């Protein structure tokens, strides 16, 4: 699985918004805080607004803020807002693909992959990121040194 720059930038920016609570953050300040190129961030904010994750306020004291509490926004929500479904195989949903022969059961592998990706990304909220911790089940997955290595 590959996390795109757009998805990663979106999560970083959303996490910064989570630290601001109900105070709107101007896009320029958000870009600096998240370490995201400002021009790229504008498109991300458009996607997040369209999906109902971010609100924007105009005028003096305006900016962007989360549309709902950070505890109710997961990393999966943010990634879906900017990229669509979490796991695609050749631009198709894993359960909609059929193979023949020895690969006939491969859709089960793709669906299992999606289930595991969801199990992690739907557990971690923006509030978790803002607080600097992840839920125990996610932390447990990283406790093995092999989890940090690429084979």
UniProtKB/TrEMBL annotation:
* Entry keyword set: DNA-binding
PROSITE patterns on file:
HTH_RRF2_2 (PS51197)
The entry's cellular-component GO terms read:
cytosol
Example of a GO MF term: DNA binding
Q: Does the keyword NADP apply?
A: no
Family matches, as InterPro entries: Tscrpt_reg_Rrf2 (IPR000944), WH-like_DNA-bd_sf (IPR036388), WH_DNA-bd_sf (IPR036390)
The name of this protein is Rrf2 family transcriptional regulator
Species annotation: Ruania alkalisoli
């Amino acid at each position: 699985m590959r996390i795109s720059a757009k998805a990663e930038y979106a999560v970083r920016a959303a996490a910064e918004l989570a630290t601001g609570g109900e105070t709107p953050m101007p896009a320029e300040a958000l870009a600096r805080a998240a370490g995201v190129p400002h021009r790229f961030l504008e498109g991300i904010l458009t996607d997040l607004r369209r999906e109902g994750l971010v609100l924007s306020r105009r005028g003096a004291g305006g900016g962007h803020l989360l549309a709902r509490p950070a505890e109710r926004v997961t990393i999966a929500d943010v990634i879906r807002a900017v990229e669509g479904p979490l796991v695609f195989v050749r631009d198709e949903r894993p359960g909609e693909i059929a193979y023949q022969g020895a690969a006939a059961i491969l859709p089960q592998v793709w669906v299992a992959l999606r289930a595991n990706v969801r199990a992690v990304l739907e557990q971690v909220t923006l509030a978790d990121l803002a607080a600097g911790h992840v839920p125990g089940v996610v932390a447990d997955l990283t406790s093995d040194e092999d989890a940090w290595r690429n084979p």
